[in-house]
Structures are given as C-alpha cells and as structure tokens.
Design goal:
With 135 residues, the chain is mainly α. The protein has one domain. The protein has 7 helices and no strands.
C-alpha cells in the first residue's frame, strides 16, 4: 500500500487532497465557531456593494460549502490511502473550486481587488486538484 501512495500521481493526489481538507475545514469551522464575528465583518465589508442585503445567506452558503468541501476532502484522503479511489476527493475539489469562485465574485463586487487577487492561488490549487484527480 505504501508503494502505491508514494507513486508520483498518487502522492500528488493525496497531498493536494490533504491541502484542500486543511484549507476548507479550517475556514469553514472558523466561520461556524465565530459566526457572529464573521457576519459583522462581512456586513461592513459589503456595506457599499450590491450584495449588502444578502450577507447572511452568502455567509451561510459559503460556510456550508467550505465545511462540506473540507469534510469530503478529508474523507477523500482516507479513501485514496485505503482504497486508491478518488471519487470523494474529486467531488471535494469540485465543490472547493465553486466555493472559491463564489468568494471571488463577492470580492470583485465589493471592489476588494486585492482580496480577489489573493484568491487566485486558491483557485489554481482547486482547479488543479480537479484536473489531477480526474486523471
């Protein structure tokens, strides 16, 4: 089993999936554990944007998708190690990619161009994971 995991493609798939699990579980759980703080910050952040009246549903949507993506990635990492299957990891990567696109959309509408630009590496990671896991 270790020989299989250490092969370049399997190793890249596993470590990419672990990155997604860490990234999205931490981010999603941070929003769950400090929901009021995140809501207050985002309400101010989007105060002058067309999204100002949708902050609460946006935060709930992003929190749910991040947490599910992270949990799927964690389960997908286990599936990769135990069964050399990548279905869960691929679904995690897809959901993570959509999540980053949603965040990017919000940052652009809030005219937070630096914040939007900071999301590009995350998008590359997520979209790359989709390609890597779909191979």
């Amino acid at each position: 089993m270790l020989d299989e995991i250490l092969k370049p493609m399997a190793f890249a798939q596993l470590t990419t999936t672990l990155m997604l699990a860490i990234l999205f579980l931490q981010s999603g759980l941070d929003k769950v554990l400090d929901f009021r703080g995140n809501l207050a910050w985002l309400t101010g952040h989007f105060a002058k944007s067309p999204l100002r009246s949708t902050v609460l549903p946006m935060l709930v949507t992003v929190t749910v998708t991040e947490t599910i993506a992270g949990a799927l990635a964690a389960a997908g990492a286990v599936q990769l190690v135990m069964h050399q299957q990548h279905a869960l990891a691929l679904w995690a990567a897809r959901l993570a990619t959509l999540n980053v696109v949603m965040l990017f959309f919000g940052q652009r509408l809030a005219k937070d161009y630096a914040g939007a630009a900071a999301l590009v590496p995350y998008f590359i990671l997520c979209a790359g994971a989709v390609v890597l896991l779909g191979a």
